[in-house]
Design a protein that fits this description.
273 residues; alpha+beta; Heat Shock Protein 90; 2 domains; five-stranded mixed sheet; three-stranded antiparallel sheet; 6 helices; 39% helix; globular
């Protein structure tokens, strides 16, 4: 495989990604080489439980979607010259849709992975306070765009726990992302860490519309989207998050009522500092 590309920068000189191509050179049994654009593998009749299914989804969709996003962002950012404002907006919409579809690919790959027999998470020594602050750092700009203030744990707020570092961060990003998505503008989201007995906990709370008892009963099931009908997510995030929590000997729960926001709490095995 040959990769070629160029770095892209916006008008302020900020790096925004790469634009390029991938070419695969095949060597058939006869020895003659064939060169061509990257060809996605066929799915055939593979079941979702087959480990190859997730890899083939990734190979078939991630590359083309990444190219669509990069091209649309280049057009939207007018890196190759000025264009009509409405065309730039259209390109921005295409890039946004591409990122949404790429998120669905990530969710499907995660779904296939966590439902694989024998799936286990690593047992890292982590600090829920540190991971909560990292999540805020990654999504803080998204919250600012809606005028939402995030009250994050202080630097000395610690909750030592055992769990896989990247998976715990993934769960927290999902919880915080949902809180931002479903919170009204100019509202507050707060995140707290604490310990109760042998459990370390982190709670993400918002001032959104809340979740009624009927929705709470199904909110962690596949394709449930907190009663929303917009295109903001796949409906797999909370299902994956709870499966990950349980794979780390933890739990993910919700406490809410209509009009009173929602509180999602991740608990994991605590450890001594």
């Amino acid at each position: 495989m040959t990769l070629a590309g160029e770095a892209l920068f916006d008008a302020t000189g900020r790096f925004t990604g790469f634009r390029g191509s991938a070419v695969v050179t095949e060597a058939p049994s006869g020895g003659e080489q064939k060169t061509g654009a990257l060809v996605d593998p066929a799915f055939g009749s593979l079941p979702l439980s087959d480990p190859q299914f997730g890899r083939r989804i990734d190979g078939a969709l991630r590359g083309p979607l990444s190219r669509i996003i990069a091209t649309a962002e280049t057009i939207s950012g007018q890196f190759d010259g000025p264009i009509r404002a409405d065309y730039a907006r259209y390109a921005g919409d295409i890039a946004h849709a591409g990122r949404h579809l790429l998120g669905l690919v990530d969710d499907l790959a995660d779904l296939q992975n966590i439902e694989r027999p024998g799936f286990k998470a690593a047992r890292d020594e982590i600090d829920l306070g540190d991971l909560a602050r990292r999540a805020v750092g990654l999504l803080g700009m998204k919250a600012e765009e809606k005028g939402i203030r995030i009250d994050a744990p202080r630097t000395d707020d610690r909750a030592p726990a055992t769990g896989e570092f990247r998976r715990v961060l993934q769960v927290l990003l999902n919880l915080l992302g949902n809180a931002i998505r479903y919170s009204p503008e100019n509202s507050l989201i707060w995140i707290r860490v604490n310990r109760e007995g042998d459990r370390a906990m982190v709670t993400v709370a918002d001032q959104g519309q809340g979740i009624d008892a009927e929705q709470q009963a199904v909110v962690f099931e596949k394709f449930e989207r907190l009663g929303r009908t917009d295109s903001g997510g796949s409906g797999l995030g909370l299902y994956i998050a709870r499966r990950l929590a349980r794979a780390m000997d933890g739990e993910l729960t919700v406490d809410s009522a209509p009009g009173q926001g929602a509180r999602f709490t991740l608990s994991l095995p605590a450890r001594d500092a």
